[in-house]
Amino acid sequence: MSWKSLPAGGCLAAIAAAAVTALIAGCAGLHSSQAATQTYVLASVPASTAPASAVTSGAVTGAVSVHVLRPLAAPGLDTDQIALLRDAQRLDYYAASRWPAALPDLLQTLAIDALRASDRFRAVQPDATAFAADDVLQIEIRHCEVVYSSDGTPVVHVQLLATLGHQGDRSLVSSVTAASEVPAAANRMQSVVAAFQDAVNRSLTQLAAGLAP
Asked: Which end of the chain is more exposed for a tag (fewer CB within 10 A), N or C?
């Protein structure tokens, strides 16, 4: 039957019916069997246990201020996806699991918090801040991924290289490498993230302790 053979009222009814059918089909297409993406966060290294009076008065133990640049990441790690290695060489990512930001942005924030907690610097700021600094810190993320051991246990590998230099002439002050490997308690995403938390905290604590302003 053609549209021309329908009376005016029948034509409008046919159009309305077609629109309803399309809407129902569209709503059905919204349902998916894929798991919803989960976002996992990493907490900062615990703050310094300095006396409250020192904190409120603004007293610090360090004499140097530092800007922390956005970390450089090994190929495949500058992403918000959670990385893993299969068969020792095949880079992959966990499905439906993400960090809240790209890994370098996440590590920059955590590194700033770790350095502030160490009390080794007068001030620690991101490089985008409006305040001047004496030194600049560049971190390289060499490893921050899961490697599955021969028995199937997920092990988080983190390796960071930090280079501290003077802001004015970028001359080298110190360089520190930190690494940690933490097996997950179980082959479940929450356990894997807990292992990431432990490995990242250990590595950042090593960096903060090893850097000499």
From this structure: N
> What pLDDT was estimated at residue 38?
96
Q: Which residues of 30-68 are buried (b: 16+ CB within 10 A; e: fewer)?
A: eeeeeeeeeebebebbeeeeeeeeeeeeeebebebbbbb
**106 vs 2, 21, 58, 99, CA distance in Å?**
61, 46, 26, 8
On whether both 183 and 109 belong to a single domain, the answer is yes
CATH of the domain at 150: 3.40.50.10610
Token output for 103: 């890994």
One domain, residues 66 and 16? no
Give me the number of domains the chain comprises. Answer: 2
Q: What is the pTM of this model?
A: 0.78
Same domain, 27 and 123: no
Name the residue among 148, 169, 166 with its Cα closest to residue 157.
Answer: 148
Per-residue pLDDT tens digits for 59-106: 445 689 999 999 999 999 999 999 999 887 899 999 999 999 999 999
Are residues 105 and 9 both part of a single domain? no
